[in-house]
From TrEMBL:
<dbReference type="InterPro" id="IPR005254">
    <property type="entry name" value="Heme_biosyn_assoc_TPR_pro"/>
</dbReference>
<dbReference type="GO" id="GO:0005886">
    <property type="term" value="C:plasma membrane"/>
</dbReference>
<feature type="transmembrane region" description="Helical">
    <location>
        <begin position="45"/>
        <end position="66"/>
    </location>
</feature>
<keyword id="KW-1133">Transmembrane helix</keyword>
<keyword id="KW-1003">Cell membrane</keyword>
<dbReference type="Pfam" id="PF07219">
    <property type="entry name" value="HemY_N"/>
</dbReference>
<dbReference type="InterPro" id="IPR010817">
    <property type="entry name" value="HemY_N"/>
</dbReference>
<feature type="domain" description="HemY N-terminal">
    <location>
        <begin position="26"/>
        <end position="130"/>
    </location>
</feature>
<keyword id="KW-0472">Membrane</keyword>
<keyword id="KW-0812">Transmembrane</keyword>
<protein>
    <submittedName>
        <fullName>Heme biosynthesis protein HemY</fullName>
    </submittedName>
</protein>
<dbReference type="GO" id="GO:0042168">
    <property type="term" value="P:heme metabolic process"/>
</dbReference>
Length: 417
């Protein structure tokens, strides 16, 4: 379309020129004593156009001639910058390939070439960011080579070069890398200090939160780690299974950090509702409370959500739940006894429920029912601990009714013979 328009324009110019020149009878007379020169007006116009074109071409040629030194300088600068960027790419490639000595040399070559450009007064617009990245690559290589002094020197220079506003992202990356290096050196306090220097927005990014989580776990700051893990879970930084596993482990660590009943109660209350219903957490909290001579009724209350969802538990968790409830059977009330009996009757072939119901009946001094349930459970239990406890309880019941032969047989089976 554009070519068609240009063609039409040229035709229009040609027609206008033909109309003007064809009927133009004017002349131009030039007096140069003693001469007189008569020239047609058309020729004068052509000569003026030709003179303009010639002068314009001559000026352009002179401008190009005088611009040659600047063009040569720019070409040399471009060549040096290309060489510098190629060295930067080499440093990154060598570092990714694990060739850290070569990566460090390439990064230092970038810095040397940038220094040469600056001395020559040819400093590039993004020189600060380029130097900061080169220093970071050199520091990363030095860290891999266990050269801590070199790493710290390059890190300091990188932070200085990245102080400008346009290199803010580079500075944030340097701070995060410094925190990761401190974690590798098993210095979580130093890592936390590096992370505190990050702006608020950068501190809430997934990479920063992951680093903070590792640092707080290394430092034993379980509450800080819990808050960070919750944020990461909300940001979907982990898969649901991994997030649940991390939160579960941190919650158990938080409970283990309590050394009296009041501390344990506060720690358990600080957990979110969804965290308190995690079977492993609730079971561990109950066992920890009983170990600290806490209230068995409260321990049973903590286990109630897990008990109500026991149908979704695996066999191993059902055994742990039974053990935790067995420890909390002292002062067992009628409500819990009814719950256990109802669950056992709903699933009469479950040996774990038979064992738990038998132990509950034994605590309530219902000797006959306890013996019946424990005898059935002892024949079906797969867990060695529960199997041993069932035969031990049967031995105690036999001794109570003065049946020496049955007691000896039960003690023998409890011993695994």
């Amino acid at each position: 379309m554009r070519a068609t328009l240009w063609l039409l324009a040229l035709f229009g110019i040609a027609v206008a020129g033909a109309l003007f020149a064809g009927n133009n009878q004017g002349t131009v007379t030039v007096f140069w004593p003693p001469y007189r020169v008569d020239v047609s007006l058309n020729l004068v116009v052509l000569l003026l156009v030709a003179a303009f074109v010639f002068v314009h071409a001559a000026l352009r040629a002179l401008a190009a001639l005088f611009d040659l030194p600047r063009q040569a300088l720019r070409w040399r600068t471009q060549q040096k910058e290309r060489s510098m960027h190629a060295a930067l790419l080499d440093a990154l490639s060598h570092m990714l390939a694990g060739r850290f000595i070569r990566a460090r040399k390439s990064a230092e070559a970038v810095l040397q070439q940038e220094d040469a450009l600056e001395v020559a007064g040819q400093k590039s617009a993004n020189a600060g960011q380029l130097r900061a990245i080169a220093h970071l690559l050199a520091a990363e290589s030095a860290h891999a080579l266990q050269d801590r002094a070199g790493r710290e020197e390059h890190l300091k220079l990188a932070l200085e070069q990245a102080a400008a506003r346009e290199a803010q992202e580079t500075r944030e990356g340097a701070l995060v890398r410094a925190a990761r290096w401190s974690l590798d050196d098993r210095e979580p306090d130093a890592a936390m200090q590096w992370l505190k220097d990050l702006p608020v927005g950068a501190a809430r990014r997934t990479l920063s939160l992951r680093t903070r989580l590792k640092a707080s776990r290394q430092a034993g700051q379980t509450r800080e780690a819990m808050e960070t893990a919750r944020l990461l879970a909300k940001h979907h930084a982990f898969s649901p299974v991994a997030a649940r596993s991390i939160v579960r482990g941190l919650a158990i660590d938080l409970l283990n950090g309590a050394y009296d009943v009041a501390q344990l109660q506060r720690a358990f209350a600080s957990l979110e509702a969804s965290e308190r219903t995690i079977p492993e957490v609730a079971i561990h909290a109950s066992q920890r409370l009983l170990a600290l001579r806490g209230d068995p009724e409260q321990a049973r209350d903590w286990l109630l959500p897990v008990w109500e969802a026991q149908g979704a538990l695996g066999e191993a968790l059902q055994v742990k739940l039974a053990c935790a409830l067995e420890e909390a059977l002292d002062s067992l009330d009628g409500t819990w006894l009814a719950r256990i009996e109802s669950a056992q009757k709903s699933n009469p072939r479950d040996a774990t429920l038979q064992y738990l119901a038998g132990m509950a009946c034994m605590k309530r001094q219902l000797w006959g029912k306890a013996q019946q349930l424990l005898t059935q459970a002892a024949l079906g239990l797969q867990d060695p601990g529960l199997h041993r406890n069932a035969w031990r309880a049967l031995a105690e019941l036999a001794e109570q009714r003065e049946d020496g032969q049955a007691a000896a047989l039960a003690w023998k089976r409890a011993a695994g013979e």
